[in-house]
Amino acid sequence: MNQILMWIVSAGVILGGIDLLLGNRWGYGKQFEKGFELLGPTALSMAGILCLSGLLSGGLSPGARAFFEKIGLDPSMFGGLIAIDMGGFHLAKALALDPVIGLYAGLIPAATLGCSLVFTIPVGSKLMEEKDMPYLCNGMAIGMLTLPAALIVGGLLFGLGFVTTLKQNIFLFIFALICGLGLFKYPGPMLKVFQVFTRILKIILTVGLMIGAVKMLTGAEFLPGLMPLPEAMQIVVSVCVFMLGSLPITLLLQRILKKPLSAAGKALGMNEVSMAALLIGFVTAMPVFALAKEMDPKGRLVNLSFLFCSTAVFGAHLGFTAEVAPDYLGAVIVSKLIGALLAGVCAILLSKRLISE
Question: Which of 197, 224, 291, 346 has its CA 20 to 30 A from that of 213?
């Protein structure tokens, strides 16, 4: 499956590159270019935390290990609270007592819960209009409450077994339940908490990038154990190379599936913008937030619920996983898709009650 995905992405690279050479006749060339245009934003969000990953894990290791070992859990699960490509993976791997659980924590929880905590929720709350905030809160709450399905499927695909998966995720299950209920009942304060958390993380990202750049330019060793910036940038570049192919392929899929999606939208009571946004969210969440005002209320709720797990599954998360743990590409994709589909179905079933409120 991993090899098939690599060839599909490679086909996207060829499609986008050829279209770019022909003057971007069909729009695939523009998507190809966008892959490298994302290099700057991706580096700003990833490089700094990658440089600091060893130091962060070293600082957290004593306390985190003692706490988690006391309750019988692997400390790597703490990494699941941070996005996979913003330090969650490397933190989980460094804290792990069991290497397999460390990979699991850094790939599955970090690509779903962690991504939503530090990216989807705070960014969405800034980009969306005030009147749409209830849809964001309800959508993310649905995603939180259906998250266990994605985490359990991921654990089974990693070979951890059902009991081990439940045990290792108990902390995250409780955390997600509290956050989900909080978003339903106290949306304003909860959004502020996520925004503060993101601001703190942004400070850490920027400081890490500054220190890494100074070390690269001068050789000055301010903090021993820092990952060299060129090494961190190698991971960033690998993610963007994947985007060269995944973005044109996503555009192709949108066009191929336009009629089936339109028919499905009519059956579900959602407009075309809402259905198209579901596919866009597979690559990146930001256009979905911008399109929210053009969606019908039901489509808005479904898309924002869907995003909790679907964000970047065929975008940055695909590229990152392919670089750091290619053997687990299939597990990450399947887990995220199952979580997204379940959240979307629940949003459809709850739409009448939530929208009427």
Answer: 197
